Known about the structure:
Layout: E1 5-6, H1 7-10, E2 30-37, E3 49-50, E4 56-63, H2 64-74, H3 85-88, E5 91-93, E6 102-109, H4 115-130, E7 134-149, E8 157-158, E9 194-198, E10 201-209, H5 211-226, E11 232-234, E12 242-249, H6 280-288, E13 290-306
Parallel strand pairs: 5-13, 7-11
Antiparallel strand pairs: 1-9, 2-6, 3-4, 4-6, 7-13, 8-12, 9-10, 10-12
Helix pairs in contact: 2-4
Amino acid sequence: MRHPLHLAAALAAFASPLHAQTAPAAAAKFEVASVKRCTEISAGRSGGGDSSSPARLNLNCATLKGLIQQAYIVYAGGHANPIMSMRLTPVEGGPGWVGSERYTINAKAEGQPDQATMKGPMLAALLEDRFQLKVHRESRQLPVYALTVARNGPKLKPAAAGACTPNEFFHPSGAPGRPAPLAPGQKPRCIGPRLGNDGSNRTLEIQAVSLAEFCQLLSADGPVLFGLDRPVVDKTGIAGKFDILLEVARSQGAPGSRGGDSGGADAAGTTLPEPDGPTIFVALSQQLGLRLAPARGAGEFLVIDHAERPSEN
Length: 313
């Protein structure tokens, strides 16, 4: 029996590499802003909370790296991008403390800017002012998997046109992870990505998804869910939307394995155990008529050039 679990709530993350602006918009500014080193973590409280309200931005105990991801990736350009973009656009560089020290920001905006503007361009401007932050984007060639059509052709189920409302996991709205209410007369939201269990295997169900979007999911959570050690790019040349139900083994082995049909060896030559069911490579081929082939492709990175600890106020 399948026991569905909503995967979107568990994924932190996840749209092709973004080419959003790294320079903040100059039109809207915070009227006042307080940046303080967070001391609540040491008392056992978790960090990264968000209690923002209209015209106010309140970010609790977040690392500078997390703030950069929010300002320059998730809310880049003043609109919400898919949350998976945080994994697809890694943040690199900077002093070691950018990923460990936490800060609380409380800011009041002039006028009535929306949350995406405050969490994107306005927060970026604040970071550049108070942390003396400088960043740049760069594209590099890196190992990828190319999703191609298997020898016997695709086995894809076309999605019925208009059968459901697009899932905002791939189609952003006002806030990642918080879908906008359906309007009267709208169809129910498309299923997934939804993770479930079917005996000893794991199931992944997605409704009305393009193969490019499917690759985004494989890229964002491949290391965790499927044991993939590199991003996935769509090279099938197949357009349209499809309903996908994929069944894979629970144990996919460690990233860095040879990526073959089953078993194999890791980078150190250690023999890996046979999985309980089909690997992602076998499942794609047998169930969807697709295959993953090692290739080279461009990946985008956000690089921290300079950052300083802010003076508290």
